[in-house]
Specification:
This protein has one domain. It contains three helices and five strands.
Length: 92
């Protein structure tokens, strides 16, 4: 098993709490509005914000699960917002 695969299988004790916290639309909206200081954020249709299944299969046919995937309308197009939440005590 590679170092990357090993680290993927060992979530930090905070992962479930942060995953739950960012499963609320208001938290995702507040995160983007307050920390992503880009004009495109103002054009997101917040009423259309909803989660997608975090489970997927890779090109190598491995089952994987991401933290959280959100989708919303942005200028009448689908926008995908993927939150990769990783809290480390040291640099890789």
């Amino acid at each position: 098993m590679s170092k990357q695969e090993d680290s993927d299988s060992q979530p930090t004790p905070f992962d479930p709490a942060y995953t739950q916290l960012f499963s609320y639309p208001k938290m995702v909206r507040d995160l983007l509005v307050n920390f992503v200081k880009q004009p495109w954020v103002n054009d997101i249709d917040w009423d259309s914000l909803h989660t997608l299944s975090p489970k997927f299969v890779t090109k190598k046919l491995r089952k994987r699960e991401s933290d959280i995937i959100w989708t919303a309308k942005w200028q009448d197009k689908d926008l995908y917002i993927i939150l990769f939440l990783e809290f480390q005590s040291s640099v890789d």
